[in-house]
Specification:
The protein is an alpha/beta fold. The chain contains eight helices and ten strands. It has two domains: 75 residues, no CATH class; 164 residues, Glycogen Phosphorylase B (Rossmann fold).
């Protein structure tokens, strides 16, 4: 969860700014970095942070900077002490079973776009009639995936217009969905922003559902045994997770429980959820 984790970090920055409106937020190790060496040290930076007024921008000078420990390999939603690792060919440690922090709950992040990004995104969807169902069946882990043929069945059984955001170079086109070539994740987010009030998102537990939450777009999220909406979901979204197996596995390797849990999600469940979600924009 690369981009989604960065969106969640903007939520943390928002809360800190509300409590400390005079400071700018940067991401890194507070034990190593301080406001005194902000000109000498590179903080963690991601495209998600662009234009965010609370977050220190590249080259920006700020009188007060607060460094928070939220960056790759230091995320608040993981318990790294209990995460299990294997050794890569280069000798580095690679996680194969993530352990989650059970007390972690998401805070909606924020996304800020430039005028040109907004104009370009609006142009991309100007010819689509509402309602639009933006659809993304892909995630960073196959254990999160729903049965692929069922995505086609959902589209086939619906009279609505589906638009697939193809920011992922490995995305497989869905039959019956319009392919919208969003070349970057940020551009895909900008398209969602342009579609607020006109559409909903249908996806799995992935980066894009965090973007929908940040933009206040209704979403339907399909969950496997890998993770849980109690930790990574939003109350305003329709979360579908049929899994009697207990705690989420966090496995990077093939998981039979993940496969079983997604098989329990039927096409009719998703079609019903679509009609429920569309009522939020009608």
């Amino acid at each position: 969860m690369k981009y989604g984790a960065d969106i969640l970090a903007t939520g943390e920055a928002k809360i800190i700014h509300q409590e400390n409106p005079e400071v700018k937020i940067a991401f890194g190790n507070p034990e190593v970095l301080s406001q005194n060496d902000q000109g000498k040290t590179k903080f963690y930076w991601a495209e998600i942070f662009e234009n965010n007024p609370y977050i220190l921008q590249p080259g920006e000078n700020a009188e007060q900077v607060m460094v928070i420990s939220n960056y790759p390999k230091s995320r608040p939603f993981f318990n790294y002490a209990k995460t299990r690792y294997t050794q890569a060919d280069d000798g580095s440690k690679v996680p194969y079973k993530f352990a989650y922090n059970p007390d972690y709950e998401v805070t909606c992040g924020e996304l800020y776009f430039s005028d040109s990004e907004i104009a370009e995104a609006e142009k991309l969807i100007e010819n689509f009639e509402a309602p639009i169902i933006f659809i993304d069946p892909h995630a960073d882990n196959p254990n999160k995936h729903w049965i692929f043929e069922r995505w086609d069945d959902v589209i086939k059984q619906s009279s609505h217009q589906f638009v697939q955001l193809t920011y992922d170079e490995h995305a497989v086109p869905l039959n019956g969905a319009v392919q919208l070539n969003t070349t970057t994740f940020r551009q895909a987010c900008a398209v969602l922003n342009a579609g607020v009030g006109r559409g909903i998102l249908l996806t799995v537990d992935c980066d894009l559902h965090h973007a929908a939450a940040a933009l206040q777009m209704p979403a339907i999220v399909l969950w496997s045994h890998y993770s849980h909406p109690d930790n990574f979901g939003y109350n305003d979204h329709i979360n579908i997770r049929w899994d009697p197996a207990g705690k989420p596995c966090g496995l990077r390797d093939n998981c039979i429980q993940c496969k079983t849990s997604v098989e329990m999600i039927k096409v009719r469940d998703v079609n019903l959820a679509i009609e429920m979600a569309l009522k939020k924009i009608s």
